[in-house]
Amino acid sequence: MRLDRFLANLPHLNRQQVRVLLAQRRVSVDDRVTCDAHHEVRAFSRVMVDEQVLQAGEPARYLMLHKPAGCVSATSDPEHLTVLDLLPAALREGLHIAGRLDYNTTGLLLLTNDGQWSRRLTQPQTKQPKAYHVRTEDEIAAHYVARFQQGFYFAFEDLTTLPAQLEILGPREARLVIVEGRYHQVKRMFGHFNNKVVALHRERMGDICLDPDLAPGQYRALDADEIASV
Ligand code: URA
Prior knowledge:
Elements (H helix, E strand, L loop, with lengths): L2 H6 L6 H9 L3 E3 L2 E2 L13 E3 L2 E4 L6 E6 L21 H4 L3 E3 L7 E7 L2 H8 L7 E7 L7 H7 L2 E2 L4 E2 L4 E6 L2 E6 L6 H7 L5 E9 L2 E2 L9 E3 L2 H5 L2
Parallel strand pairs: 7-13
Antiparallel strand pairs: 1-2, 1-3, 3-4, 5-7, 5-15, 6-7, 8-12, 8-13, 9-10, 11-12, 13-14
Bound molecules: uracil.
The site of uracil has 8 residues, from helix 6.
């Protein structure tokens, strides 16, 4: 919400008073004085007038989890273990998943309560690369590389996937970098060759790599550089 609207919505301030406060440089957001009426105020913003705190700001949380196989990327599930079940109860409140993984896919899963941040990471328009280590049932032929680069037509969504980089690491092993996160995207891409994905592991999203110190099922908070990289 815009700062002037946020202030004018408070019971003790009208629009004229808001204009004066801003002009007198008495308003701060996140400890920086601003006179910009359009400054964005979010649930996480700390807003003050003089020494008075008008909104303390909800703490933003950003976590990485090493997702093990055999749990669902959901916040609740009647049958299966969910990724949230792997976190202490006190940390779970308000978290959502920034880019789901399938039940048996392992690797980097990011969780946050900051919707803008997760959208920047997952929306295809922002073209944030997601790197996967893939093992397949059959051999990965050299001609796959150009085909992944060209894109595959997905009839259900009526779209062609954006160019993807396939690096062949072994006869049945590759690293794939995609910039979207369509439903079962990696498996469907290999499905074009009738080549079944038998193991899938996400290594990286944007500039955030899975911490090698995290065993499957373990998590840690992102550091300031990782948060700012998105
Ligand atoms: N693509 C898939 O097919 N599955 C995943 O879990 C992630 C990407």
